Amino acid sequence: MPLPLPVPGPLQIQPLFPVALGQVQLRPDPLELAEQVQALHALRGDADGNPDPGCAWTGDLNGVWQLHLHPTFAPLIATLTGHARCYLEELGFDRRRVVLHLQRCWPVLSEPGQVVGRHHHPNAHLSAIYYLNGDGSGRSGCLRLWPPRQLNELVPGLGAGHGGPLTPTCWTEPWLDVAPRAGLLLLFPSCIDHAVLPNDDPDDLRCSLSIDFMLTAPPTPEGQAPPEYLAPHPGQWQAITEDGVQPA
Ligand SMILES: [Fe+2]
């Protein structure tokens, strides 16, 4: 689709190639929310770092990576995956021609002062975060998202500031911060670098759930081929072992 032509007048700027950040504000039931937070406390046990005390406790590194199978969380996760399917549809995916796989789902618990360093999820295609608490102010620690490359700063690095000649505007911000709020779901491409800023709320444990999804083709009938560049359905893969090729 060609870009719309500008109308006569002053300079107009249009965003090109936008990254799709999906947001859904759910209305969690307070009793269910309390039960979920209590369950997360129990799953974390005596640990409080990961293992560095400055790093938030994350379930994926501590054996708690299948919350979608946990009875306290399964109904919530099913709701969240429904929104993930809507996100795919908004991007243009034909839901009949792709299968969305939930790969893992784990909690992230930040005590006051704890962070999660900058990273991305190379194991996945689509990632989601759901907040169990937060008041929208950001004081419990914003999620920071970085663009793969900030082309608009023109000179690489200038958007980060440090006394340079560029004062970032909405076109040149080096990152985007999202404040946690109870019931907020975020969806974004897994390749996007992100981090969690320090929890500056001395009275609250910051609680969120993370989900990684993968996309594959549906099971392909005999004699047909899955779309190029899309992995075949894992039910049609074969694992290679020391004993040779084994069905997946
Ligand atoms: Fe992450």
Q: What does the model show?
A:
The protein has 248 residues and is of the alpha+beta class. The protein folds into 2 domains: 22-43 and 50-142 and 179-216, q2cbj1_9rhob like domain (Jelly Rolls), CATH 2.60.120.620; 223-248, no CATH class. It has helices spanning 30-44, 74-91, and strands spanning 22-25, 57-58, 99-110, 116-119, 126-131, 143-145, 176-178, 184-189, 194-196, 206-216, 238-241, 244-247. A hairpin with a 2-residue loop joins strand 11 (238-241) and strand 12 (244-247). The longest helix is centred in the first third of the chain and has 18 residues, at 74-91. The radius of gyration is 21 Å and the shape is globular. The two termini are 41 Å apart. The model has no long low-confidence stretch (mean pLDDT 94). Fe (ii) ion is lined by residues 119, 121, 194, 210.
Topology record:
Blueprint lengths: L21 E4 L4 H15 L12 E2 L15 H18 L7 E12 L5 E4 L6 E6 L11 E3 L30 E3 L5 E6 L4 E3 L9 E11 L21 E4 L2 E4 L1
Antiparallel strand pairs: 1-8, 2-3, 3-10, 4-9, 5-8, 5-10, 6-7, 6-9, 11-12
The structure holds fe (ii) ion (FE2).
- For the secondary structure, the number of strands is 12
Uncertain residue segments: none
Q: What is the CATH top level name of the largest domain?
A: Mainly Beta
Question: Could you name the CATH homologous superfamily of the largest domain?
Answer: q2cbj1_9rhob like domain
Index terms:
248 residues; alpha+beta; Jelly Rolls; 2 domains; six-stranded antiparallel sheet; four-stranded antiparallel sheet; 2 helices; 13% helix; binds fe (ii) ion
Characterize this entry briefly.
The chain is of the alpha+beta class and 248 residues long. 13% of the residues lie in helices and 25% in strands.
